[in-house]
Design brief:
Number of strands of chain A: 0
Strand content of chain B: 25-35%
Number of helices of chain A: 8
Shape of chain A: flat
Distance between the termini of chain B: 67 Å
Largest interface: A-B, 33 and 41 residues
CATH topology of the largest domain in chain B: D-Maltodextrin-Binding Protein, domain 2
Structural class of chain A: mainly alpha
Number of strands of chain B: 12
CATH class of chain A: Mainly Alpha
CATH superfamily of the largest domain in chain B: Periplasmic binding protein-like II
Oligomer: heterodimer
Strand content of chain A: under 5%
Helix content of chain B: 25-40%
């Protein structure tokens, strides 16, 4: 068997990190867009939309991501719908992320004082004008820290896609460990790479929190 | 209105997706496709491991390539873990599982097996200073094993109840647990332990006692007699012409046992 040098190990882990990064970005952007829909459903005036949004959030927050991935990949295949691994992974991660982001953002929108809605309504603004000019800009400030914070969870959540055959960072670590039998070194490097991906996000979250936490400081 | 359109689209989409024809005969499908899809391990040397560029190599990979060559088709290697190799087969994502698969009653209920293609002896392995003659000596010793593997099922029946068995999700977890000192001994295949010894790790898994002879079989879906026959014929040919022995020499450093 070929002997891996530390450089070989690191190179293979970094190649697999590409998948971790791509999956994170896809789930974050896709999850953000779907999460917007979830948000509007959750705060809608229509009862059935609120119920639909709530059911969606409960479903995806109440079941493990691992199960969602497994069902998307193997479950659909049992019904004759053959989903490629990238689609199943992307879909499950997007839907999962959307449930959490939608719920985080709902909290942020509802944190905006009721008087703001009433004041903007008294100026004759319609629902979307209120949202656009008054509510969302304020909610955004509250939303950034938890949103960025959640993105760290998304990065780590992509590790679960190995169950459906993705060779992302964690899986590559497993595979390389069993070609080298150096678990300390390999998993140490894996942890370090995750840290390098997540730490800047956590840091950005802290900085943004300090800069934007003005929503409550002007009262 | 929008909702109705959405539902209509969904229904049409589902109908289109579910009309994928159910395959009639796996062997014909393979020939028509021109490639055979084989589930192989990636974390279980010497059966399946990776080289420096993360390409799969090992006994099972050579076996998959040999079967494809003799069928006159290309090969698509699908890396799997011990946890998902059977779902891959059941959901028709692979045609064969060549993934150091042992035979037991639970597995025989859901998939079919060909003849054996590789030897595999389960045993208990630990450091040299530990003296263990049989399962009854395991009391007070922590044992690591891969959950649901043949060695797990066998050992669970054999050992006294007081033995502390730690079950890991995959072979990697089991091996890492031993190398890092989480468990005193591991139950695994003799060839797996040999592959670890070859790397000269700090903790050396030396053979304590053998548990069971559990050779590896090729797994395939039920009711595929044509494919089953074809693979069995190839395995018999490979045993007869010595090419299987060549693979055994390359990866297991030993001749095939005569009774395989």
């Amino acid at each position: 068997m070929a002997q891996f040098t530390v450089f070989d190990i690191l190179r293979n882990l970094l190649l697999a990190t590409q998948w971790t990064v791509v999956l994170s970005i896809v789930s974050f952007i896709g999850g953000g867009l779907v999460g917007m829909l979830v948000l509007f459903a959750r705060i809608s005036n229509r009862g059935w939309l609120r119920l639909l949004g709530r059911g969606y959030v409960e479903l995806f927050q109440g079941t493990p991501l691992l199960m969602q991935l497994f069902l998307a990949f193997f479950g659909l295949a049992l019904f004759g719908i053959s989903v490629p691994a990238w689609l199943a992974a992307g879909l499950a991660l997007i839907l999962w992320t959307a449930a959490f982001l939608g719920e985080i953002w709902r909290g942020c929108v509802q944190a905006v004082a009721k008087g703001q809605w009433e004041a903007s309504a008294s100026l004759g603004m319609g629902y979307f004008q209120q949202m656009q000019h008054v509510i969302l800009p304020q909610a955004l400030r509250v939303a950034i820290p938890p949103t960025v914070g959640f993105s760290v969870q998304v990065v780590k959540g992509t590790a679960l896609t190995s169950i459906i055959g993705f060779i992302e960072l964690t899986r590559a670590g497993t595979v390389v460990t069993n070609a080298t039998y150096q678990p300390f070194l390999v998993y140490g490097l894996v942890a370090l790479i995750y840290f390098c991906l997540c730490w800047p996000l956590s840091r950005a979250s802290q900085i943004l929190e300090r800069k934007l936490n003005v929503a409550h400081s002007h009262h | 209105m929008l909702r109705r359109t959405f539902i209509a689209c969904l229904v049409t989409g589902l109908a289109a997706a579910t009309t994928v024809p159910v395959h009639a005969d796996a062997l014909e499908d393979i020939k028509a496709r021109g490639t055979i899809r084989v589930a192989v391990p990636q974390d279980f040397p010497p059966f399946g491991s990776v080289d420096l560029s993360m390409e799969s190599v090992g006994y099972d990979i050579d076996m998959a390539k040999a079967i494809a060559e003799r069928l006159g088709v290309g090969v698509e290697l699908v890396p799997v873990t011990s946890a998902n190799r059977i779902p891959y087969l059941q959901t028709d994502r692979v045609d064969l599982v060549i993934s150091s698969l042992g035979k037991n009653a639970e597995r025989e209920a859901v998939i079919d097996f060909t003849d054996a293609y590789a030897p595999f002896y389960n045993g208990v392995f630990g450091e040299a200073d530990l003296t263990l003659a049989g399962p009854e000596d395991l009391a007070g010793v922590s044992v690591g094993v891969t959950r649901g593997s043949v060695e797990d099922l066998t050992l669970t029946e054999l050992v006294p109840e007081a033995v502390e068995i730690s079950r890991y999700e995959d072979n990697n977890g089991t091996i890492s647990a031993f190398l890092s000192g989480q468990v005193d001994v591991i139950a695994t295949g003799n060839v797996v332990a040999a592959a670890i010894l070859e790397r000269n790790p700090q903790r050396r898994p030396e053979l304590k006692f053998l548990v069971k002879n559990s050779p590896c079989y090729v797994g395939l879906n039920k009711d595929e007699p044509a494919l089953l026959d074809a693979v069995n014929t190839i395995i018999a040919e490979m045993k007869a012409d010595g090419s299987l022995n060549t693979i055994s020499q390359a990866w297991l450093k030993a001749d095939l046992p005569a009774d395989l």
